[in-house]
Records
---
Amino acid sequence: MRKLLFLSLLSLASLALAQSEVRVRYVNVPADAFPAQDPLAALWQRAPVTRVTLLPQTVTTPSLTAPSVPWLEVQALHNGTQVAFLLRWPDATRNASIDVDRFTDAVAIELPLDHQAPPSFMMGHPGGRVHIIHWKAIWQEDLDQGFQDVASLHPNYWVDLYFFADTPVPLYAEGEFPHHPAARSFKTPEALAQLSGAYVRNPVSILDRRVPVEEAMAEGFGTLTSQPKQNATGRGVWAGGQWQVVISRPLVTDDALDAQLGPGLRSVIAFAVWDGGQQNVGARKHYAPWVPLVFEELPQ
Amino acid sequence: MATVYNWQLKRDMAYLYEGQRPKRQIAYVFDTNKCIECQTCTVACKTTWTSGKGQEVMFWNNVETKPYGCYPLRWDLKTLELLGEQSWEGETYTGKTVFEAAPPGERVLGYRPEVEDYASPNLGEDVIAGLVEKGAFFQGVHQVWMFYLARICNHCTYPACLAACPRKAIYKRQEDGIVLIDQSRCRGYRECVKACPYKRVFFNMVTRISEKCIGCYPLVEQGEQPRCVQTCIGKIRLQGWLSAPEAPRRDNPIDYLVYVRKVALPLYPQFGLEPNVYYIPPVHVPRDFLVQMFGPGVDAAIAAYRAAKDDPELLGALLLFGNTPRIVTSYKVQDQQAIGYDEAGREVVRVPFQEPVYIRPYFDAERGVYRHNIT
Ligand code: SF4
Ligand code: SF4
């Protein structure tokens, strides 16, 4: 009986934890010691852990009918100028490539622009804008392993010629495997025109990505739009069946499209997780609605 | 869900958006009886639009041998299977469309092909539908059938690709009905790849977004027919404008073939997209197969087509195929000739019903040579 009581108390406690706030712990470290891109830094032990329950997105179509990620753990730090969120969730498979039938693991945080009156947690609503920062495993792979190109997906593809590629394809002797010019060697306008997404600078078609994250804004379903100015950074590592991803940015920016943050601020934060192995993409995602977000004050 | 009228099904049906026909609708007629599967169209399209990185196995135009050819693999069988029984009562479709059969949480019934499904674009080429008996020989009629099916995007009136995109990155142009993917808005969700039952949206693994046939709009905007139409060796293709179903124009060759004479039929109309590539069905293929593929108008279409040689107006429309790069918006038949006009009323093509025959002497005295053959 006592054991049962203990157990139910425990589950109540975890429920309470699940609905509690994300506390952004103040750490007095300079920028170079701040774990803006290090999910494994020792400093993270100083930040409290909040476990957030994830739900399958079924509010709009297309929806996620088979959820596979039950929760996400969040830790957060700030040093008076920067903020970093460490996101940890279970995922048995590491999916870091994209093809017609391959999808990438990913995570996103969402912040309201108006901290007093946050809009709908589902991508905001018309007139109620949200600031969203995405991290994707394939972008991490682009940085860690080089741009994920045709050769990384299909090393045995045989192509005679790509028009206008800067690295000319040499005529190869019989039996010799043809040379694969990298997508990044398509630099002239004529060459880039062969890669229409890159030609029109679609933010998902960037061939020379510098960070594995993307800052975007939204005012409702289907309105996600990349920000012209990108201030965020991050890094993710997968080990032992879980992802650990840091997303960080300056607390205050000169970008009117960013949520402005700071010590002592009380706001909210929402999350989304995509399981690439289960073909999660776009609206087929796991989400957590607004969770209170509290930034610790600077010490007096 | 809104309710729209689909003239190919002769009934209202559910669609995500309100029905609004474009100012004019790009449409094509393909005569399957004339296709020789030379793949000139495929190569013309490939070298024009899809020779970049990430497009290695992408063919916006492909020609497959029916019944076994398919690109991507089993595209038609899979959708037919998913859709279950499809029934017609007379000319009215009484089964479900891919919109009406969408499972919970989905906008469209569909499946997403796998990477291997694109790996053999010409699988099943020239494979016939049955076995040829030992000792059989050609007796004027082929004993086993197959035919070539040329396929491009249908620039559907009710595109499934467009309905499925949660970002509204796909749009249908008001000025010509061409369906395009906004290359700067697409985020590569591949909902369109899954939704299009004809599998005419492709995913580019390098740009990580989706791409599709653009109806050669830079040509069409200048009054020229698309590349696949202009280059067709078999002269099986005609591109033009299809009027709204309630206002067909008899002097518009596309309207005449589709609405007036009904010799050209939509591909799998039961999917419910009102596709705008119309096929003249092959005359030698079992009717059940053709009805499944082109709907209930097959018998009438074949009968009219077979009689075309004694039917000047129909013959005239058929002779416009492949004889001009310009888009023919009206035509007439006069003095055993088919005459086509462009939008400005200028004559752009004149084709005699019967090609003149010139007999040249065996010995050419002027050049001092003998002529061995027709060239
Ligand atoms: S070019 Fe014409 S005849 Fe040749 S395969 Fe294409 S459609 Fe058929
Ligand atoms: S054929 Fe497919 S890709 Fe083309 S408009 Fe129709 S649904 Fe879209």
Note: The longest strand of chain B covers residues 25-31.
---
Amino acid sequence: MNDRPDYEFCASHDLYGHTACPGCGEKILFRHVLDVLGPETIVVAPAGCGAVTDGVFPHSLSPVPYLHVPFGATPSAAAGVRAGLEKSGRSHVTVLAWAGDGATFDIGMGALSAIAERNENVLYVCYDNEAYMNTGMQRSSATPTGSWTTTTPASRLKEEPKKDIDAIMAAHRIPYLATASPAFLDDLKAKVKRAREIKGLRFLHLYSPCPPGWKSDPSDSIAIARMAVESNVFPLYELYDGRRLRITYRSASVPVAEYLKLQGRFRFISDEDAEKMQSEVEKNYAELMSRHEKSEISKI
Amino acid sequence: MSKFVAFKTLAEMPELPVSEARMSWNKTGSWRSSTPAHRGKLPPCNFNCPAGEDIRGYLDLMKRGKVAEAFNLLTEKNPLPAVCGRVCYHPCQTDCNRQSFDTELQIRSVERLIGDWGISKAYRPELPPVGPHKVAVIGAGPAGLAAAHYLRQRRVSVTLFDENEKPGGILEYGIPSYRLDKDTLKAELDRVLDGVEFKPQKRLGRDMELRDLAGYDAIFLATGAHKSKKMFVSGEDTKGVESGLGFLKRINSGENIDLNGKQVAVVGGGNTACDVARSACRLGGQVTVLYRRTENEMPAFAEEIEEMKAEPIDLEFLVAPFKIESTGNRLKLSCHRMELGEPDEDGRRRPVVVEGNDFDMTVDQVFAAIGEDPDISFAGGLVYNADWTLDLSGVEDNLRDKLFIGGDILPQPRTVPHAVASGRMAAEQIDAFLKGVPFEPAARVTEVAGAEDVNFAYFSRLNAARRAHLRDELKSSSDISAAADEANRCLSCGVCFECDNCYNFCPDLAVVRTPGGYRANLDYCKGCGICAKECPSGTLGMQGGRAV
Ligand SMILES: Cc1cc2nc3c(=O)[nH]c(=O)nc-3n(C[C@H](O)[C@H](O)[C@H](O)COP(=O)(O)OP(=O)(O)OC[C@H]3O[C@@H](n4cnc5c(N)ncnc54)[C@H](O)[C@@H]3O)c2cc1C
Ligand SMILES: Cc1ncc(C[n+]2csc(CCOP(=O)(O)OP(=O)(O)O)c2C)c(N)n1
Ligand code: SF4
Ligand code: SF4
Ligand code: SF4
Ligand SMILES: [Mg+2]
């Protein structure tokens, strides 16, 4: 066996038996985030796949307290838990809000803006599987253009572009924001570590493959996540105080088409939309690059 | 493992919905319809190495900076890394899966650097004391050397006889020193023969007979193939016509030979012809190689041909001499022009004479290098069958049972690593014979890991500039760290290198790391297949069904 230490926390706490689908990205993300944060953590989670697959009452996968809260209330509930911890002298405990894209981009948006504006000391993670997956793959404002969902069927694919949640959060000038992917675990863990050390609202936007929702092969989850990064559909970067930006991984800039073809949800996309997606991606990436180069922390 | 909690009455329910147990009672393995498993495929390099080296294994040690361990693992199968690192035709590199990605691993250069490291450190693994058995080895070429070495390591007392003054066989008296320098050879053989008694200038059939060796517990015959084939050309015994191997032996024995300004014809297309032509060129001769087929059919190793072509040597293809006559102090060579006809038994197209196109050439010297046959005129009762296998029925009974044979004397490919392998195998066989136990050769995995098994996303390509210089740089490097860098490129085809991908990417935490390797915990594995797809080395694959 290699000399690396064991990843005790999750491995030694029997993180098995959850009910997520085979190949679920959310569960890969959850175990690695928790491995970094360790036992002094409280999870606050709204309705969604993450919470639902954590277990069936009265059982829970999670080795730390896992508080189920109403769909739109994650930010407020997390702020409440934080206040309680402060009052009871347990300020060292991390409050981890763990919410889907529906809960974050849509129904929780107002409350999220509120805790960001107040810079509440919460680590807010959005695992983004780009639709309301738990209730049967309805589109959310995180669903990309040209994607199939049950509410954007082949005859009427999603037309609107994905909401730029990162720009919205950046506009709140929160101390730390980062994107991360399960295909780049070292990068992900480094970002969770940095986020843990910072006080205030930290926002992590995690890319979360969903085989049944994306009509992809369960074995392709990591390959798709890697492609999302390599094609710049989901670039990896971090942002301090909403201003100083650092790209943390230089992608190979492979064509977006390589990314699309691994997923059934994009099977019906028109050539025109695919090309538009390619040029959007290029524009966004060029913009990120120029911000990265202007930033004084840009050394990768 | 956590238990399943079921409430039978309302009263048993907690007031607040609070969890009372974990989820591990939920054996999600029952969802599975395919199962990750170790494929057990062999890396193509290991598969193709005639000496049976664990190449992937020592590359892995090299990249971890464990040079001594790499040296030990390599020399478990081949005691001649510095030699083979120079003269082996490296079939290990031919199917390297890195080839389609950028450039095949420069395994031979790594092997040479490891061998040279052993020499520079005067590295000597400890010798065990000898036991009661004594074995005679005849012939100190690579086959006899390997047998003597591995027998000695197995506590057998060994006496190695050779007709020559120095050990090495073809390594010493055939291969020219510009390909294998004498210092390296000597240093390597000193280590290999540690603890072995070497008796030079003892020719079987002249200085001793097979029956004189009856006092040994076993005899290993590895006298090689040294009888130059006849050209069957009229006048081939004329003065000025010599066998290529004889010429090489004279050079290697230190004789001063001057071919300055001489016209030299070398007949043949094998390794001997290449070495003879290049040696004659170095001695000042104007060399023309005459070969009766085309370059495609030349039996010499491709690299030899390339290197020969880079020198001022004329190559005449589709030419066959049929008569040699003396013209005073020169030689007239009469030749046919040939063309290729139907393929013969070994698949090469047969050369046929083109009538009416004969021509003459005048030269000073002819070297016949059309191949060698084994010569067993020494051995009482030993004869060849028509297919070059040996018939031992005429050997005296008390000798036959303990007689073992290997190397070029047998019908096997004539290369150093094949000779080494047969010597090592003979050592294992003799050891079993001496102990009175049956010999069971290790079973070989024959399924080979191909490029389709490797996940290249985890490896980075060399840039074009590095790629262009890699081969030459490594060939001339004398820095062991270059070997470690090169080893770093190894894809570890088919063999786990403990990258932890399977462990890390499993959504169900169902991969367990154990000291014996990584395996799926089938109680929980849902069969998603991520571990197999993200396994860089192709160690893991999915197999149909819900294996338990
Ligand atoms: C010119 C030349 C170049 C070659 N180049 C390469 C190369 O680059 N790479 C490669 O892989 N292979 C090469 N080969 C092939 C390779 O050298 C042989 O396959 C290999 O050496 C065979 O090993 P061996 O131990 O069977 O025989 P040998 O190396 O031939 O050794 C046999 C030994 O036994 C001795 N002997 C013979 N008869 C008697 C006797 N009656 N009593 C006592 N001693 C005796 C011989 O003198 C010799 O020392 C080359 C061969 C030749 C001829
Ligand atoms: C107020 C409210 N509306 C609707 C629901 C039903 N509901 C439960 S989970 C879910 C989808 C959650 O989507 P997302 O946040 O993206 O998480 P995912 O399931 O995709 O992981 C919905 C709509 C609910 N629980 N509460
Ligand atoms: S990449 Fe390594 S293991 Fe694979 S064939 Fe090449 S040397 Fe052998
Ligand atoms: S990644 Fe885990 S669940 Fe998926 S096949 Fe491998 S061991 Fe099974
Ligand atoms: S993924 Fe890595 S650790 Fe797992 S079997 Fe393959 S090489 Fe070994
Ligand atoms: Mg979602």
Note: Chain B has a mean pLDDT of 95.
